[in-house]
């Protein structure tokens, strides 16, 4: 098939590369000229395991092309994916302006009928509105064809996006016509060989399924974060509670990790968008509002824990491990580390941060004077380097090499032996044995003499 993917971000570029990998002819269109120039020059502008090789190979094989020009890309197109960003508006609603800008252009420039598929996460009713928007433009130029619009929400996770796209848990296709349903079923057939879960439904149902999935996952995280806070008060180790409840097959182990709050480009904005949709329909979104509030509290937790340990922060040297909102990605959108950075900068602390891939994005995002003054330094080369004379180490992202570091070397570098473990990757008792004050999330075990006695006996 001839496919056009509009938007070359995490979703668009991954989808395009994976479709090209299956043998299709794919053109990626983006208004960001710098991004397109980079892609043409063979540089993949986002960090996503497995993506570079796939983009490079398919580009070399002439199956994957990059352009800023939508109009010429549309010749003989069979399927056109919309994968542009839908960030939050100030009132929490999803900002769909890019989606409708694309819809208008498609209506203006499509030379013949094709299936338009919306992959961006959008409010219920958007596919219908996009179809109307295209139809209005077609009518203005007296085009003698119609363009059906389907909804095909994306469920990939950053950090394992290629893997998720190639082997999805399920594919949801929301359509209102036989042509789109058939074309998309055929396009996705090779991705369903291991797991034939293709769910066909209405477009509105597909759109709400996407928000409901993200909101459910965010709810599990906020729920566990709340149990973690209670655990801290009760002298309970939330890690044992996680295992205790995850073993119930009705609950399961996934997405039960307490931490320093969820970030990323989707959970925060999608929870806010669903709250906004509920409110527009006169409903109070009790659960989701609490999910968001809990997450705001959780993100502030790293700073509070640090302050409790150090008393004051002005002039303190803080080592920060991890800037990305999760491991495996360079994405820093709504990352807990950014909120911590801001609080520490205002408190007059000096922060020396290490992240293997997210430093460039942070350097672009933070006020220049933080870096120019040396109050913040960013290091992508050596996690031990940022520990020199530090008064505390904060772990905000659970990159794998952080899991078993050389504690002797760390102790020799640091002025004070305090570790704020925002991702619960260290065992509190062995940290004590290494001579560190360890503050995790919900690790009340340090106060629980019963648990300590049991561990010592084991
Ligand atoms: N990032 C993720 O892991 C996932 C994101 N989604 C959803 O997919 C959508 C896209 O997300 P990301 O890929 O993260 O976004 P992104 O922000 O990484 O990329 C969006 C791209 O669209 C381009 N763009 C904007 N307006 C355009 C226009 N008129 N024409 C052509 N290109 C245009 C931008 O320049 C940018 O390169 C969002 O709705 C998001 O909620 C869904 C599942 C996973
Ligand atoms: O719509 C989207 O954009 C995507 O959002 C999430 O994917 P992603 O944001 O890439 O990453 P996740 O692995 O879901 O993690 C999100 C945040 O939750 C946090 N998290 C995750 C799991 C957990 O148990 N605890 C926890 O705090 C992570 O640290 C991270 O900050 C969903 O998992 C994807 O299915 C969805 O497609």
TrEMBL record:
Active site: 266 (nucleophile)
GO MF: NAD binding; UDP-glucose 6-dehydrogenase activity
GO biological process: polysaccharide biosynthetic process; UDP-glucuronate biosynthetic process
Keywords of this entry: NAD, Oxidoreductase
EC main group: oxidoreductase
One Pfam family hit: UDPG_MGDP_dh
Chemical reaction(s) catalysed: UDP-alpha-D-glucose + 2 NAD(+) + H2O = UDP-alpha-D-glucuronate + 2 NADH + 3 H(+)
Record: residues binding substrate: 155-158, 210, 255-259, 263, 326
Family: Belongs to the UDP-glucose/GDP-mannose dehydrogenase family.
Protein name as it appears in the record: UDP-glucose 6-dehydrogenase
């Amino acid at each position: 098939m001839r496919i056009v993917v509009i938007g070359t971000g995490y979703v668009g570029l991954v989808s395009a590369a994976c479709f090209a990998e299956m043998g299709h002819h794919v053109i990626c269109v983006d208004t960001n000229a710098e991004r397109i120039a980079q892609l043409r020059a063979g540089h993949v502008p986002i960090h996503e395991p497995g993506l570079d090789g796939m983009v490079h190979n398919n580009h070399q094989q002439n199956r994957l092309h990059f352009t800023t020009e939508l109009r010429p890309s549309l010749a003989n197109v069979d399927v056109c994916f919309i994968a542009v960003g839908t960030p939050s508006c100030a009132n929490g609603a999803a900002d769909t302006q890019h989606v409708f800008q694309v819809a208008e252009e498609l209506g203006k420039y499509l030379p013949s009928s094709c299936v338009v598929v919306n992959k961006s996460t959008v409010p219920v009713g958007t596919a219908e509105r996009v179809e109307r928007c295209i139809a209005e433009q077609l009518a203005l130029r007296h085009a003698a064809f119609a363009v059906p619009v389907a909804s095909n929400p994306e469920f990939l996770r950053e950090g394992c996006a290629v893997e998720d796209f190639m082997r999805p848990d399920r594919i949801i296709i929301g359509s209102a016509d036989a042509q789109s349903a058939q074309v998309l079923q055929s396009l996705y057939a090779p991705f369903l060989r291991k797991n034939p879960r293709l769910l066909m439904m209405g477009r509105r149902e597909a759109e709400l399924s996407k928000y409901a999935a993200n909101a459910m996952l965010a709810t599990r995280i906020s729920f566990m974060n709340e149990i973690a806070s209670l655990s801290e008060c009760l002298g309970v180790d939330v890690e044992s509670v996680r295992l205790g409840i995850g073993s119930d097959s009705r609950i399961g182990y996934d997405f039960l990790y307490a931490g320093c709050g969820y970030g990323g480009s989707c959970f925060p904005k999608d929870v806010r968008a669903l709250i906004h949709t509920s409110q527009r329909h006169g409903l109070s979104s009790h659960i989701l509002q609490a999910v968001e509030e809990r997450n705001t509290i959780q993100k502030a937790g790293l700073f509070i824990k640090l302050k409790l340990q150090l008393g004051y922060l002005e002039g303190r040297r803080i080592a920060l491990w991890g800037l990305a909102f999760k491991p495996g990605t360079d994405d820093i959108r709504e990352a807990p580390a950014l909120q911590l950075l801001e609080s520490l900068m205002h408190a007059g602390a000096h922060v020396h941060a290490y992240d293997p891939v997210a430093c460039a994005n942070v350097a672009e995002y933070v006020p220049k004077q933080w870096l120019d003054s040396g109050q913040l330094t960013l290091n992508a080369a050596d996690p031990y380097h940022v520990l020199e004379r530090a008064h505390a180490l904060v772990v905000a992202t659970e990159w794998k090499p952080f899991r078993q570091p050389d504690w002797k070397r760390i102790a020799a570098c640091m002025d004070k032996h305090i570790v704020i473990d925002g991702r619960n990757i260290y065992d509190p008792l062995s940290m004590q044995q290494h001579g560190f004050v360890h503050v995790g999330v919900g690790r009340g075990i340090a106060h629980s003499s019963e648990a300590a006695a049991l561990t010592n006996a084991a």
